Amino acid sequence: MDIGEQFSLEHLLFKERTCRSCNKKKNLIEDFYMTRKSKKGLPSAYSYECKDCTIKRILDNRKRREPMSDWKYPDW
User: What is the spatial distance between Cα 49 and Cα 47, in angstroms, rounded to a whole number?
Assistant: First the structure.
C-alpha cells in the first residue's frame, strides 16, 4: 500500500488557520465554513472568519424586527 494513498498533503500542512476577526488559531476543517465547493479539501476553499465570528457578525448586522416600528400614520 502506497503512503500517498493514506495521507493527503493538505491535511498534513494546513490543519489550523487564524481567524481574521478574533485572531485565534482554530481547526480549519471544523471551525471554518467552506466557501468554494469546487475546490473541496483545499485550504483556499475555506473562509478566513471562523464560524463563531461569522454567526456573531450576522446576528449583530441583522435588522431588528419589532412589530410596527417602521410604520407611521400618514399625515394628510
Answer: 6
**Any alpha helices (H) in the chain, and if so which ranges?**
3-6, 9-13, 28-31, 51-61
HSE toward the beta carbon, residue 10, CA cutoff 13 A: 12
**In this structure, is residue 18 part of a structural domain?**
yes
pLDDT tens, residue by residue, 8-43? 555 545 688 999 999 999 998 899 998 887 776 677
Structural domains in the chain (count): 1
Taking the whole predicted model, whether its pTM rises above 0.70 is answered as no
Residue 21 lies in a domain: yes
C-alpha to C-alpha distance for 33 and 49, rounded to whole angstroms = 8
Residue 75 lies in a domain: no
> ∠ CA 11-44-39 to the nearest 5 degrees?
85
Q: Which domain holds residue 44?
A: 10-60
